[in-house]
């Protein structure tokens, strides 16, 4: 997910943290957060191969009883 924000975000993170080292730590934490999210979505796709999509598709497959709950919760 690299867009044009990669050119403007470092300056705001550096000004918000006030330190180059702390801003690098923040970027590293962001990387590990994204990597852990990727591993969760890979596990979802491996566990539910017939239902690919967003969180709603996975939650409806895992918990089929509340039919429209997850769709309504994500829409609000």
How would you characterize the overall build of this protein?
It is a single chain. The chain has 76 residues and is mainly α. It has one domain. Helix content is 74%, strand content 0%. It has four helices and no strands. Helix 1 crosses helix 2. The protein is elongated, with a radius of gyration of 18 Å. The mean pLDDT is 81.
Topology:
Blueprint: H1 5-17, H2 20-47, H3 55-62, H4 69-75
Helix pairs in contact: 1-2
- Termini gap: 25 Å
The radius of gyration computed from the alpha-carbon positions, rounded to a whole number of angstroms, is 18 Å
Query: Which class best fits the helix and strand makeup?
Result: mainly alpha
User: What series of H and E elements makes up the topology?
Assistant: HHHH
Integer count of domains: 1
What's the helix count? 4
User: Taking all residues together, what is the mean pLDDT?
Assistant: 81
Report the sheet-strand fraction: under 5%
Count every beta strand, where a strand is a DSSP E run of 2 or more residues. 0
Biggest β-sheet description: none
